[in-house]
Amino acid sequence: xxxxxxxxxxxxxxxxxxxxxxxxxxxxxxxxxxxxxxxxxxxxxxxxxxxxxxxxxxxxxxxxxxxxxxxxxxxxxxxxxxxxxxxxxxxxxxxxxxxxxxxxxxxxxxxxxxxxxxxxxxxxxxxxxxxxxxxxxxxxxxxxxxxxx
Length: 149
Description:
CATH superfamily of the largest domain: Aldolase class I
CATH architecture of the largest domain: Alpha-Beta Barrel
Helix content: 25-40%
Distance between the termini: 33 Å
Shape: globular
Oligomer: single chain
Structural class: alpha/beta
Strand order of the largest sheet: 3-4-5-6
Order of helices and strands: HEEEHEHEHEH
Number of strands: 6
Strand content: 15-25%
CATH class of the largest domain: Alpha Beta
Number of helices: 5
CATH topology of the largest domain: TIM Barrel
């Protein structure tokens, strides 16, 4: 239903769980369609894996790098059964660039990328920063990102 609301002036929808009549958004989003990314627990249950495989443009990786290979394989396999190209489903994990693991961030980014991660969120949370300090930190490391942006 979200995809319909984001792309059509007027939506009529009669689904198993929801019924919508004469609904719409005004103005419609500039970006159409809006990508849908799904987050789950570190080891997503099968229903979530199926939802990611069937509907998502990407998923937020909350599992460890060691678990990522298996979870990613399950999502890719399920996507193929739905007739989707698994390579079109992105995967994003967060890497802290402040705090107790600051010295590891570049190795962690490189490791995630080697495993097939498509997106990385460089986190400055936990640095006790104000907004300007967060931005300053990200500007300072942007040229140090392994593999570039």
